[in-house]
Amino acid sequence: MADGRDGRKAEIDPKLLELLACPLTKGPLAWDPERSELVSRVAKLAYPVRDGIPVMLPSEARSISAEDVLPAAPPRLGGPS
User: Fold this and answer.
1) Which of 10, 6, 7 is nearest to 54 (CA)?
2) Strands (DSSP E) along 7-59, which ranges?
3) CA 35, CA 27: separation in Å to the nearest integer?
4) Per-residue pLDDT for 66 more than 90?
5) CB 44 within 8 A of CB 66
6) Which stretches does DSSP call E strand in the chain?
7) What domains are there in the chain, each with its CATH number?
8) For residues 53 and 38, what is the distance between their CA atoms, to the nearest angstrom?
């Protein structure tokens, strides 16, 4: 599992992802391969993965905004007039 420092995309074992939980909320984490981070949508934190090792310390996590957490809303369709 690379951490992306050498230009390769980092990967995480899906079984490991099933076992890991946010240390604050105890909720699930999502893998962000672009940034090599494990994202807690509930806590709005992104935990780094360095040298293939998840750093599950809130003090090392990056705060993320609601836009980073949730996908963009689909365009609204016009309703009845």
Assistant:
1) 10
2) 30-32, 37-40, 45-50, 53-54
3) 20
4) no
5) yes
6) 30-32, 37-40, 45-50, 53-54, 62-63
7) 14-68 (2.20.25.10)
8) 11
Which bin fits 14, alpha (ψ -120 to 50), beta or left (φ > 0)?
Answer: alpha
| Residue 29 contacts residue 21 (beta carbons within 8 Å) | yes
Biggest alpha carbon–alpha carbon distance for the chain: 56
Work out the end-to-end distance of the chain between its first and last CA atoms, rounded to an integer number of angstroms: 54
Which pLDDT band, with edges at 50, 70 and 90, does 5 fall under? low
- Tokens standing for 56? 């599950």
Q: Tokens 């420092």 — which residue?
A: 5
CB of 2 closer than 8 Å to CB of 8: yes
- Exposed/middle/buried for residue 15 (C-beta within 10 Å: 0-12, 13-18, 19+): exposed
Q: Which whole number is the average pLDDT over 8-27? A: 87
